[in-house]
């Protein structure tokens, strides 16, 4: 099979949706990469010290199960291991081009996960020894990795900084995925002309990540909000929300400037209409973030408005944008007949990340002393 127009994935010929709504849930799990980026960057910069344990636990849990999304979408879980054993990283005569799916799933995910997991284990090593001494649970002794004194723990600092810096590289690739795939390796009109999609996706996913962290802090307990540095997380959340709103407005201006008054705008108009609603939701969560900076109790609402904005925006980007035909002249409203079997799958893969976060939180301490 030849590719005169560039590489085409086989399921791009399926109609009406190329990527099933399951990929929408997958994009939410990618917020785990952003949580890890925030934790690792905070460690390197010496910021958000009290929030790092929570960010690591929640981020690692969501990022661990992130590949459940594409495997469910591709409907070939029996061939999952081929993603790692036969990843097409370099072009060949039989398979020209480079597959971003193979690069992200077969290289970047294992690399990022190993580095992040190793950093997490070393970061919690001495705290796990302290926990072992208090409980005598043999699991905690194993997880202490033999780091039984503050001196040994402090000696790990250079290694932890190296691991953090290295892990940020593959995690950064994940922070803008799958937007990079949509823009670079699909033939859908709206995605190809969504110039700011990677930047919007990054900011949107960062907002989702901070919303998850704020909600987790509330679940742990209102009395722990200051201890878990919720005010700082709220500030970051607000910055992400206004950034997404601004980027969406700029993108709409770019579309109007390029396609306004032309037949091609017919396919873009339904997506633009939803974008305006998303902008309103992002501005709402931004306003609530400003209020919560003075009245911390308001922060309980922020995760829900943040999730609502992110869900609305991601659904518009991932599901509705596919309804714009490749010609760029028609928009067919996505059908709902597939939702009956898609919704349980979406809920299941997100629940898997939440369950793993609960398990990790029951093992690792959310308060780490002697981490300076």
User: Which residues sit in consecutive blocks of at least 5 with pLDDT less than 50?
Assistant: 1-17
Shape: globular
Give the DSSP E fraction (strand runs of 2 or more residues): under 5%
Which percent bin holds the helix content? 55-70%
Number of beta-strand segments: 0
Q: Estimate the mean pLDDT confidence.
A: 84
| Number of helical segments with 4 or more residues | 17
**Largest sheet at a glance?**
none
Which radius of gyration do the C-alpha atoms yield? 22 Å
- What is the N-to-C order of secondary-structure elements (H for helix, E for strand)? HHHHHHHHHHHHHHHHH
| CA-CA gap between termini | 58 Å
Helix-strand makeup class: mainly alpha
For this entry, what is the oligomeric state of its chains? single chain
Task: Describe this structure as you would to a colleague.
The longest helix is centred in the middle third of the chain and has 30 residues, at 230-259. The chain is mainly alpha-helical and 372 residues long. Helix content is 66%, strand content 0%. The termini are far apart. It is built from 17 helices and no strands. α13 runs antiparallel to α16 (302-318). It has helices spanning 22-29, 31-45, 52-64, 68-74, 82-85, 100-123, 125-135, 138-143, 150-155, 157-175, 179-184, 189-192, 197-220, 230-259, 265-292, 302-318, 339-363.
């Amino acid at each position: 099979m030849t590719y005169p127009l560039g590489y085409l994935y086989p399921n791009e010929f399926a109609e009406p949706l190329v990527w099933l709504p399951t990929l929408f849930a997958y994009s939410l799990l990618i917020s785990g990469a952003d949580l890890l980026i925030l934790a690792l960057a905070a460690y390197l910069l010496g910021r958000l010290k009290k929030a790092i344990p929570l960010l690591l636990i929640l981020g690692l849990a969501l990022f661990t199960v992130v590949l459940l999304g594409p495997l469910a979408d591709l409907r070939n879980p029996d061939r999952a291991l081929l993603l790692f054993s036969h990843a097409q990283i370099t072009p060949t005569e039989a398979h020209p081009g480079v597959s971003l799916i193979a690069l992200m799933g077969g290289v970047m995910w294992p690399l990022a996960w190993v580095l992040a997991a190793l950093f997490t284990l070393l970061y919690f090593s001495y705290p796990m020894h302290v926990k072992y001494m208090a409980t005598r649970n043999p699991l905690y002794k194993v997880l202490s990795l033999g780091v039984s004194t503050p001196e040994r723990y402090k000696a790990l600092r250079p290694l932890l900084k190296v691991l953090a810096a290295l892990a940020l590289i593959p995690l950064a690739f994940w922070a803008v995925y799958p937007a990079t795939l949509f823009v670079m390796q699909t033939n859908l009109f709206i995605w190809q002309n969504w110039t700011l999609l990677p930047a919007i996706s990054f900011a949107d996913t960062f907002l989702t990540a901070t919303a998850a962290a704020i909600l987790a802090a509330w679940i742990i307990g209102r009395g722990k909000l200051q201890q878990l540095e919720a005010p700082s997380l709220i500030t970051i959340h607000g910055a992400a929300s206004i950034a997404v709103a601004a980027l969406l407005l700029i993108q709409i201006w770019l579309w109007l400037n390029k396609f306004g008054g032309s037949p091609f705008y017919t396919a873009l108009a339904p997506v633009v209409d939803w974008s305006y609603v998303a902008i309103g939701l992002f501005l709402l969560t931004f306003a609530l973030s400003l209020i919560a900076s003075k009245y911390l109790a308001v922060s309980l609402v922020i995760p829900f408005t943040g999730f609502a904005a992110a869900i609305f925006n991601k659904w518009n980007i991932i599901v509705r944008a596919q309804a714009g035909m490749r010609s760029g002249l028609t928009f067919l409203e996505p059908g709902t007949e597939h939702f009956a079997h898609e919704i349980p799958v979406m809920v299941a893969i997100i629940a898997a990340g939440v369950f793993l976060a609960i398990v990790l939180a029951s093992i690792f301490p959310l308060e780490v002393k002697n981490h300076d």
